[in-house]
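User: My collaborator sent over this chain with a note saying "see what the structure looks like." That's all I know about it. Can you take a look?
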Amino acid sequence: MTFAKQKPLAQFTWIVFRDVNRTFGGGLASMELLRRTFIANGSMNEADNAGLVAVSRLTPGTNVLAYCVGLGWALHRGWGALLALVASALPAAVVVCVLAAALVRIHEYTLVRILLAVGVLIATLLVFASAFSLLRPYVRRPALKRAAIVAVVAVVMIAAGVTPVRILLASAILGAAIGGSMPQADVAE
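Assistant: Without extra context I'll predict from the sequence alone. Here is the result:
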């Protein structure tokens, strides 16, 4: 690797900070921004970039951090590697910490609790509406008795604390044992 002219360490750190944090979760986009910037200012060429990409792909962990550390090492050795790592990782870490702190306390706000309750209510109503649409052909006169038996058995199993998978399995077996197929006119609806 040749890595021609070098920018001062402070300018290098600013470029890494700016280019890596310009994207939101875009590791490859960050590497491309760094490539364009450092090739344009003459600090590296395409062969240097290819070497950094290859090394960053071989290292375990996040490729963009490995790329930044390799770039920092190539241009400014130890301090460059350290500052490139801090400039590329610290802003995202701060954002994650702030969001985590906000999520820990967000339930304390009455408006948030109301919005969550409304969201749960809407989701529940959507599930019941979907279930009703799926069950409508089975609650007609010919299939009503079978549907009622399966529903009663499922409710009893829920009350007994049986797991959902076992309830579904028992309901399927019971429905098959009770038997009978629905007329095609009912299924088509």
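A starting point for your reply to your collaborator: The radius of gyration is 30 Å.
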